[in-house]
Specification:
alpha+beta, eight-stranded antiparallel sheet, 196 residues
């Protein structure tokens, strides 16, 4: 697959995580690896608004684990959870103010056979239908934490924005605080969304 759209610029990410989460739908995550190009269209996201958000890793302030969230926008915040999954977030906002968007689901665009070789044998549209699946298929590790989406092998391309009529908003999933906030965005009709 040739990336036919340019990378998203730093200014795109330097916005409120809630705005960024909505605008990341339809964009393309890609990773240029020695095995080949991996890519997927973003179809589900969740916003985390830093110190103002009880569900955010940054709610209690800056730590060694969440330091990337307080840095420049447009970087990868990767964390390890449940002793098995690496989850990928995009940092948002301005330096010094924490914010991030969790990439919850993608529609595969390139590198499907590479993704399958990493463990998931299900239907193609379900290969990236959750943050843990994205981490496994893209073989993300804590070494990817802090990668710059503006340059380097891991990037976000402009893709095609999704019109409002095709976007559903709902509460976030798998959290125990601030569970009622409508900070989850998904492309309606996509078979790759983690949950309806």
């Amino acid at each position: 697959m040739a990336l036919t759209t340019p990378r998203l610029p730093r200014a795109f990410f330097a916005r409120d995580p809630l705005v960024l989460a909505r605008d990341l739908l339809g964009r393309v995550l890609f990773y240029k690896t020695p095995q080949g190009l991996l890519a997927g269209r973003i179809v589900e996201t969740e916003a985390y608004r830093g110190e103002a958000d009880p569900a955010s890793h940054a709610f209690r302030g800056r730590t060694a684990r969440n330091a990337v969230m307080f840095g420049p926008a447009g970087r990868a915040y990767v964390y390890f959870t449940y002793g098995m999954h690496h989850c990928l977030n995009v940092t948002a906002g301005s330096s010094g103010t924490a914010g991030a968007v969790l990439l919850r689901a993608l529609e595969p665009l390139a590198g499907v056979e590479i993704m399958r070789s990493r463990g998931d044998r299900g239907p193609e549209q379900r290969l990236l239908s959750g943050p843990g699946k994205i981490g496994r298929a893209f073989r993300l590790t804590l070494a990817d934490n802090g990668r710059d989406f503006i340059r380097g092998p891991l990037g976000l391309a402009a893709g095609s924005p999704v019109p409002d009529r095709e976007v559903a908003t709902s509460p976030r999933i798998g959290i125990s605080r601030a569970v009622d906030l409508p900070y989850r965005f998904a492309v309606t009709g996509s078979g790759s969304v983690s949950r309806p």
